[in-house]
Design brief:
globular, 320 residues, Lactate/malate_DH_N, six-stranded parallel sheet, single chain, binds adenosine-5-diphosphoribose
Length: 320
């Protein structure tokens, strides 16, 4: 059986990390695409030379020609510019919208059957624009944000409770911005909800509130520390979890930016919700009951995404 083909559109920090993970996990052959000429070829060669040491078999190709992504099973899009200190994800809108147009047209022409995972920020607006420009069905185009935001939440919770990250499950829903919604009631240690753990004296409401706040600004904290660019290890791992669920038809239930058609009372936009990813892409959008503050935060988040979509429409009249 032929190997899967994974096209990475954008061969920067996240793109290179994605390629390494695809190789190490033997998920398939890799095409690293970038507008920069030599860089993707250099990264592909460097990565290919790690294969004999690590013991993985994969063809890795760097390119600036969209024809090379032909027949890709999965496309992971990181093309664009990342944040600099002091910038919000939304500040990236103008530049990255133009990039999504070029990428969407490239995917439409050369890999229309791929499962597409968008990482480029501001995420919820960019994945929507990418779907519009590519014309692919909405079940085949998703955004990576919730897995990453939830991983940040899980990491902080595991530290607080002094337990393995493996046993901490957590959900972060809503838009991938300051209005994201870490849902404490649905976050657990081996099935024990966080509110119960507070009652059991494992933590305090104040400490959990601080963790929620740190999760919300988790990307900005890293941007500030790096001083040049944004996070790339955890974003790459998160997108690989989504690609893996698709390629192996695992039907994992993961929080992702998905196109809503009435679910959660929301229509015609992308926002972070729990979905099942399987061989058909988005197999199911899971509607959990959001109450009180979580519901209010989710609504604020949806409105923030709507504002960004309107800003995109003002910049590009082909977007409806
Ligand atoms: N087509 C293809 N690649 C492009 C294009 C384009 N039109 N425009 C820019 N690129 C490439 C750049 O040449 C660069 O190599 O996208 C790559 C982006 O890589 P980095 O600058 O290293 O950014 P990275 O850290 O990988 O983040 C990429 O993900 O998390 C988001 O906010 C982040 O939007 C940013 C994206």
């Amino acid at each position: 059986m032929a190997r899967n083909k994974i096209a990475l559109i954008g061969a920067g920090m996240i793109g290179g990390t994605l390629a390494h993970l695809v190789g190490m996990k033997e998920l398939g052959d890799v095409v690293l695409f970038d507008i920069a000429e030599g860089m993707p070829k250099g990264k592909a060669l460097d990565l290919a030379q790690s294969a004999p040491v690590e013991g993985f078999d994969a063809r890795l190709k760097g390119t600036s020609d969209y024809a090379d992504i032909a027949g890709a099973d999965v496309c992971i899009v990181t093309a664009g510019v990342p944040r600099k200190p002091g910038m919000s994800r939304d500040d990236l809108l103008g530049i990255n919208l133009k990039v999504m147009k070029a990428v969407g047209e490239g995917i439409k022409a050369h890999a229309p059957n791929a499962f597409v995972i968008c990482i480029t920020n501001p995420l919820d607006a960019m994945v929507w624009a990418l779907r519009e420009f590519s014309g692919l069905p909405a079940n085949k185009v998703v955004g990576m944000a919730g897995v990453l935001d939830s991983a940040r939440f899980r990491h902080f919770l595991a530290e607080e409770f002094n337990v393995s990250v493996e046993d901490v499950t957590a959900f972060v829903l809503g838009g991938h911005g300051d209005t994201m919604v870490p849902v404490v009631e649905y976050s657990t240690v081996a099935g024990i909800p966080v509110p119960d753990l507070i009652k059991m004296g494992w933590s305090t409401q104040e400490k959990i509130d601080a963790i929620v706040a740190r999760t919300r600004s988790g990307g900005g904290e890293i941007v500030g520390l790096l001083g040049n660019g944004s996070a790339y290890y955890a974003p790459a791992s998160s997108a690989i979890a989504m690609a893996d669920s698709y390629l192996k038809d695992k039907r994992r239930l993961l929080p992702c930016a998905a196109f809503l058609s009435g679910e959660y009372g929301v229509k015609d936009l992308y926002v972070g919700v729990p979905i099942i990813i399987g061989a058909n892409g988005v197999e199911k959008i899971v509607e959990i009951e959001l109450k009180g503050e979580a519901k209010a935060n989710f609504d604020v988040s949806v409105n923030a995404v709507k504002e960004l979509m309107d800003a995109c429409r003002n910049l590009d009249s082909s977007l409806k």
